[in-house]
Amino acid sequence: MSLPTTSLIDDAFLGEFKRRTESRWEHEDINPSIYGFQFQRGTRWNRGLTEGEIETYQAVLGVQFPNDFNHMLRLMNGTDLPTVNIYSSSGKPQRISVGVYSYPRDLSIVQELRRGAEQDRDEIAAELSDQGFELESNANLVPIFSHRYIICGTDPGKSIVLSIVGTDAIVYGNSLRTYLQAEFLPN
Predict the structure, then answer these.
(1) Where are the strands (E) in the chain, listed by range?
(2) pTM of the complete model
(3) Rounded to whole angstroms, how far apart are CA atoms 127 and 130?
(4) Which residues make Cβ contacts (< 8 Å) with residue 88, sequence separation at least 6?
(5) Rounded to whole angstroms, how far apart are CA atoms 175 and 187?
(6) How does 100-136 read in b/e, with b if 16+ C-beta sit within 10 Å?
(7) Strand 38-39 and strand 83-85: pairing?
(8) Mapped to the 3 state alphabet, what secondary structure does 141-157 carry?
(9) Residue 174 and residue 34: Cα distance in Å, rounded?
């Protein structure tokens, strides 16, 4: 599988992405017929991180983020409100969860999810290999939202996003940009 190796995120893309997602969240209510976590009305992106904060985040995790993720973190650092799952009309009590992970607020969640992915790494790599994608043996998987992980590998120009649930894994975005568009700006 051939994937892009250049940075696809820039200030123009991120500015428009932020504007469109916040506008959508400002006007969209929780859909009562949906199972799954949804963004609450009024959700906004948190301020970005400084270069020093990004360096500290990487050091704490022991990883080097892809260029695109670094760029995103400089402008947006997770979302401010939790997501809500109302379980449609099933009668189950609603649950809340963190939205897009924010540093340092959600560091313990990110670390716990990383540990789980690392424990299942061989099975995850085998699942991806069966799909024609080879996960670098030394690549780190860092959760960014729910069960979406960005690959922190040897090429900082690649920003591939995986969806991982247990040992079930797929390439969810060939780049952070394509992932963000698919996840947050569906047609």
Answers:
(1) 38-39, 83-85, 95-97, 140-145, 148-152, 161-165, 168-173
(2) 0.93
(3) 5
(4) 32, 33, 34, 35
(5) 18
(6) bbbbeebeeebeebbeebeebbeebbebbeeeebebe
(7) antiparallel
(8) EEEEECCEEEEECCCCC
(9) 27
Residue 32's φ and ψ, nearest 5 degrees, are -70, -10
Angle at 167 between CA 166 and CA 170, to 5 degrees: 105
Give CA–CA dist 159/1, Å, rounded.
14
Q: Specify the residue for token string 């992915």.
A: 117
Mean of all residue pLDDT scores within the chain: 94
Amino acid at 179: Y
- Alpha-carbon Rg of the chain, whole angstroms? 16
| Range in 20-34, 43-57, 108-122, 159-173 with the lowest mean pLDDT | 20-34
Q: For the segment 33-56, what is each residue's pLDDT rounded down to a tens digit?
A: 989 999 999 999 999 999 999 999
Residue with tokens 């892009």: 4
Q: Say if residue 8 is exposed, middle or buried (CB neighbours under 10 Å; 0-12, 13-18, 19+).
A: middle
Ramachandran angles phi, psi of 135, nearest 5°? -80, 120
